[in-house]
Amino acid sequence: MRPVPPAPSPGAPLRRRTVAAALMAAPALWLGSRAQPVASRRATPAQTEGPFYPVVLPRDSDHDLLRNGALNYPEGQSAWLEGSVTDLAGKPVAGAQVEIWQCDHAGHYHHPGDGNRADRRFQGFGRMTADTEGRYRFRTLRPVAYGGRTPHIHLKVKLGQRELLTTQLYVADDPGNPRDFLWRSLGEADRAALTVPFAPGSDGLQARFSIVLAA
Ligand SMILES: [Fe+2]
């Protein structure tokens, strides 16, 4: 029989990174543990940045992508995207900067690599700072498919000058998901973390995306 590893002494301080590393390496050790606050959270998986992060940030880069300067964008399906930014222990990461970028309803980005063809009424990029409870909120478009990609929104989280996460989020039950090479490459748990419903709400669609940072 294999020896049972000794239990940590009560009150022994465990650094968060140590705990996180242990969880990644040996989930069987923590599934039965009482130390649930860490075990119940999983870091949001990273994905590639893609080729269309803005070369120059738009003059208007606030949380409302459906209003670019004085211009309103009436196309497509409007949606609220909101959630919170926390660490693995569930502590809000106040002051985290959340950025999103995506194509317009016709599938074009504000980017020279896409011919700068995006509708100028669509802001295409937004940034906001998470509040003291780690909350963020964007008004944007339900993403659409383009060029072989299933609908997705790109997302980046920074704290000061540090980039903590770059990823993409997907629309639950979109028929394009199973054909998308990046979505298909995700394991089951990562898919679940990055794929969220865009459900009808009182003011357009509503989507909730929780961001859990590993460090
Ligand atoms: Fe994209």
Overview of this protein structure:
This protein is an alpha/beta fold. The chain folds into two domains: 1-40, no CATH class; 67-213, Aromatic compound dioxygenase (Protocatechuate 3,4-Dioxygenase, subunit A, Sandwich). Helices cover 14% and strands 29% of the residues. It is built from five helices and twelve strands. The protein has helices at 16-25, 27-31, 36-39, 181-184, 188-194, and strands at 67-68, 71-72, 78-87, 97-101, 125-129, 135-141, 152-159, 162-171, 195-196, 199-201, 204-208, 211-213. Strands 3, 6, 10, 11 and 12 form a five-stranded mixed β-sheet that branches. Strand 1 and strand 2 (71-72) form a beta hairpin. The longest helix has 10 residues, at 16-25. It is globular, with a radius of gyration of 19 Å. Bound molecules: fe (ii) ion. Residues 50, 52, 149, 152, 154 line the site of fe (ii) ion (FE2). Fe (ii) ion binds at residues 50, 52, 149, 152, 154.
